[in-house]
Amino acid sequence: MTDTAIKPAPINHWLNGKLTPGTSGRSARVFNPATGEVQGLVDLASVEEIGAAVEAATAAAARWRTVPLSRRAEIMFRFRALLDAGRDDLARILTREHGKVHADALGEIARGIENVDFACGIPNLLKGGYSEGASTGVDVYSIQQPLGVVAGITPFNFPAMVPLWMIANALACGNAFILKPSEKDPSASLFIADLLQRAGLPDGVFTVIHGDKVAVDAILEHPGIAAVSFVGSTPIARYIYRKGTEHGKRVQALGGAKNHMLVLPDADVSMAADAAVSAAYGSAGERCMAISVVLAVGDVADELVDAIASRLPALKVGPGSDAANEMGPLISREHRDKVAGYIGSAAGQGAKIVVDGREQQFAGNGFFLGVSLLDHVTPDMDAYRDEIFGPVLCVVRVPSYEAGLKLINDNEFGNGTAIFTRDGGAARQFQFDCQVGMVGVNVPIPVPVAYYSFGGWKASLFGDTHMYGPDGIKFYTRTKVITSRWPDPASSRVDLGFPQNR
Predict the structure, then answer these.
(1) Is the pTM of this model over 0.85?
(2) Helix, coil or strand: residue 288
(3) Taking the chain, what is the end-to-end CA distance rounded to the nearest angstrom?
(4) How far apart are CA 56 and CA 75, in angstroms?
(5) What residues does the Aldehyde dehydrogenase domain cover (predicted)?
């Protein structure tokens, strides 16, 4: 079926509590990755449309910050209930626009709901400190206040979860939020917007503005936006951080990853193989916490590679609309072809292709690629150096724990890592030694629970705070310290000396 065989549906902005058609005259095609069909045309905002959105959000923020914490929490609880009730409908949107299978989509939504759970505790999370009698007749206390209008720029690979990482805390803290989702799969953001309105969020407090680089730059440059959160590739994260901070904004920008799983000779090989397959190929490898490199120490390598390879023929790859499938397509034809190119380049540079995903055949015009396993990969190969972001797992053979650790620490990225071993001492040493932000011990995808915070080190993070959890509350508020005295007027006098606390 060709792109012209179906009529693409318009995908509009969400402004002031309703769907609003764009006025820029520009749009982008939204594909169904499983069929290759164009199913939507998403509006792309102009600079002027960003300005109008900020103006509306600014007015809404002034009112929203005065809403009592108990009322904000009540809205978050209602939103959480609606999100829970609508998770199947939202999952179908993710499958249709992103391509992930239904079970994977439900898992993404579940992790997003955890962040709403955390934000429901906002009355407790925003408690300040109080010191009575810091000096004679003087009390000192701190309060956390919202920033005003904040924005989020989110990636295609988690169109529901990553926005929820940002939205829940930002709104609960009293900010107005402008979301610029990926133009590749934008409809999940509109579903969330509708639920927030039904939960009682006032119009204008949450905005969805679709767009490309024009919209991104307008967000980064607009003086009315106080802070920007971003998740995406490292080159873009670096750009977002530099440009945003140049314009006086608070910025947290999460970048790319090259996550290693270190498997020691004493590891349970069956468990490690299951973990490697799950972590490498889930969501077609399109996630920043995917394991893309297995570091096999010593004699475990042959057995481990055989164990991983033996599991791959059983993986069911196909449209996410079929509940029997475990992995769906990649997001676009161009990305699929780019990922496939790494398989060929690895072979040309000396790697052994154990399983070649390019050989698997799929009916139709979807953006499918089978799973690939590459052995004898070395650190100088493109498949090792680059973030492939697809269903390709590289095995690097190393002689020792120390050699594996060195590769992890020398890598430019420091997002996530894991160690598989039965040795508690080795695991404890690893968590101490590795220069990575999120560490798993016999856990291949160590995504923190919502009451901790998500974020890497090195080129995987630009900014001073991680995403969601306690760092999220910190990022979306600023602290004000009040020093107060209520003295007897008769004791008042002029004192030009530096204030004393005794």
Answers:
(1) yes
(2) coil
(3) 81
(4) 20
(5) 24-482
